[in-house]
Amino acid sequence: MIPPLKGSIRRQLVLQLGAITALLSLAFFLSVQVVAEKAATDTQDNILAASATSIADALYIENGAIKLELPYSALSMLGTISEDRVFYRVLQDDTTLTGYVDLPAPNPPTISRVPSFDTIIYKGEEVRTVAVTRNFSTGKTAKIINIIVGQTRLGLAVTSSAITATATGIGIGFFIVAIALSLWAAQNTLRPINRLALSVTRRGPTDLRPVTTETPAELSPLVTELNSFILRLKSTLTRSEDFIAEAAHHIRTPLATLRTQAEVFYQQMEKPENRKTLRNMIRAVDESSRSAGQLLDYAMVTFKTDQLTTQNIELGHLLEDVCKRLSPAAELKDMQILYSQSRAEVMFKGDSILLQNALRNILENAIKYSPDESDIKVSLETDENNYRLVFIDQGRGFAETDTAKLTKRFSRGPNVSDVIGSGLGLTIVSDVAKAHHGHLTITSNTEGPGACVTLVLPSS
Amino acid sequence: MRFLLVEDNVALSKALCDRFALDGHAVDRALNLGDAEASIKAVNYDLILLDIMLPDGDGRMFLKKHREHLDQTPVIVLTARSEVFERVSVLDLGADDYITKPFDFSELEARCRAVLRRLGGAAHNTKQFADVVFNTTACELSFGGEAQSLRNRELRLLEVFFTSPEQVLSKAHLMDRLFSFSDEVSENAIEVYVGRVRKKLIGSGACIETVRGLGYRMTEQP
């Protein structure tokens, strides 16, 4: 049998063992049946033969004639095996000496001393008969005496059905025990596989340690392959992470040099037209470094959201830290970040680096698109199901409040073409929110001009 | 103020020094960790600017060692990687702040100022002109026994005037200090800030006068 590729091995194993067991049980049942019936028949035959023989032994010759004193024991011994009816007939040649005249004689009559058995239908019942032959010499002639003893087989049928019942019982019992044993065997055989499967599924997506579960010899090539795959995956992941980091270094460092030199040069420049040109150059550097930076950040964020490393974070602290980090940037425009501290601790399980980056992106946007000397209000609100990190600015607001459009890669609102941006900031924010099963909402500031950006994170 | 700049990129390091010099800060340059170690043993710096990837090691190791020696000199990390690249934040390793390359010089300056202010190392960072004492770290202007706090742009404007007192400073030059390259502002915007600073100086021995067609000059009250 070719095992199918799909489905449970356990079921396959149990089904196959079950089929084999059923066949064996059937064979067992049949052989018990045959043996038992043969034994019953043999017993009846032996007694019939003994009965016939004892009748034959009771024959005697008197005055040249063969006489018979039917021994009582010859018939009573048949009663010991069952209550069946007994028939007999003693023939001298073709003449019935005694008994049932219509009890069929063996045809042709037996001549050997060996009793011959037969099963016939007599008086509408199945009757087992034995025929015994004796030769008598009465002086002048030799006479052949045939003794036929028959017995119905009702008792035998009862015995045989009892045996059949027992055999069936034993067969079924055997089948049940065998099925139970095969279930147990299947379970036992599959235990290492299950253990391996469990140890592989139980590990988180970021767990790249090799599998150390002990496995039988048949599974060890699989485990070896799996471990080498994990190792390769790990090195690939590390390499791509390192690559993005290296790329960041190699792109940003020369840009930093270029920008700083240009800035120094700009300070010393007098002619307005030269200054204008240099100013445009610096803006172009800013634009490309912003794009490069955001692209690399986006690559890293995408990489990290795939294998989130979560820890318990107090959202209030996180938010406050980000506000503090960005306040020097806000101060350059004489802007203030007003963070209203929440009273209670708000613990959240998440990746703090990613969340920080998302919050920084929101806040950077708020600073970038707001006028000088305006305020940005930052607060942390909680409701039944969510934590809401709310940023309200007094800037130009969003001309478009379709979050899906704004968070699309490289898409920017229609009212911000004059400000340097990469179109990736909100994509990063939204990706980080999604990785934490939260979302981003963008609305207009209800208390005046500006935008209200909310990062919603689930509280449970 | 005396800064130590640990940065292996010679061009960037030179440009940063030049830029800091414009504000009157003295900056020592170290191109690797070895030089940096030697420098901090010899000089007491007000602030250390530290790059992460250096030819003879990782700046973070320097930072850790530096903090283990209970050295309280503030450190700002200059890094080409943003925070998403870090497994352990440089702030957790003891940095007081960090800035991602490339940066706007005025932002670096603002961060330096914020760190110095936070750590209270303001004592010797004052400049005086006439009877006015200008404290750049505390963001304060004081005369006649009274102190006034300054907003960031007022501070930056006064910094230019106090670095070059009695000199005519062009509108363009002042603009450069107040606005970033991404801001599209007209030269008249400077008048607003000069106006504010003049208001703060009322009653002091210093004033800012307009030099027609050339710019502004801080001078003593006649």
Q: In summary, what is this structure?
A:
The complex is a heterodimer of chains A (460) and B (222). With 460 residues, chain A is of the alpha+beta class. Chain A is built from nine helices and 14 strands.
- Uncertain segments of chain B are none
Strand content of chain A: 15-25%
CA gyration radius of chain B, whole angstroms: 19 Å
Strand order of the largest sheet of chain B: 2-1-3-6-7
What overall geometry of chain A do the principal axes of the alpha carbons give? Answer: rod-shaped
Primary descriptors:
heterodimer; A: alpha+beta; Beta-Lactamase; Helix Hairpins; 14 strands; rod-shaped; B: 222 residues; alpha/beta; Rossmann fold; 2 domains; 4-stranded antiparallel β-sheet; elongated
Question: Could you walk me through the main structural features you see in this protein, from its secondary elements to its overall organization?
Answer:
The complex is a heterodimer of chains A (460) and B (222). With 460 residues, chain A is an alpha+beta fold. Chain A has three domains: 11-161, Beta-Lactamase, CATH 3.30.450; 203-307, Helix Hairpins (Orthogonal Bundle); 308-460, 2-Layer Sandwich (Heat Shock Protein 90), CATH 3.30.565. In chain A, 52% of the residues lie in helices and 20% in strands. Chain A has nine helices and 14 strands. Chain A has helices at 9-57, 72-79, 154-202, 220-268, 272-306, 315-331, 352-368, 403-406, 425-435; strands at residues 59-62, 65-68, 86-92, 95-99, 116-122, 125-137, 142-152, 311-314, 336-340, 347-350, 375-382, 386-392, 439-444, 451-458. In chain A, the strands form four sheets. A five-stranded antiparallel beta sheet of chain A has the order 4-3-7-6-5. Chain A has a five-stranded mixed beta sheet with strand order 9-11-12-14-13, with helices on one face. In chain A, strands 1-2 form a two-stranded antiparallel sheet. In chain A, strand 11 and strand 12 (386-392) form a beta hairpin. In chain A, helix 1 (9-57) runs antiparallel to helix 3. The radius of gyration of chain A is 52 Å and the shape is rod-shaped. Chain B is α/β, with parallel strands linked by helices. Helix content of chain B is 36%, strand content 25%. Chain B has seven helices and 13 strands. Chain B has a five-stranded parallel beta sheet with strand order 2-1-3-6-7. The two termini of chain B are 31 Å apart.
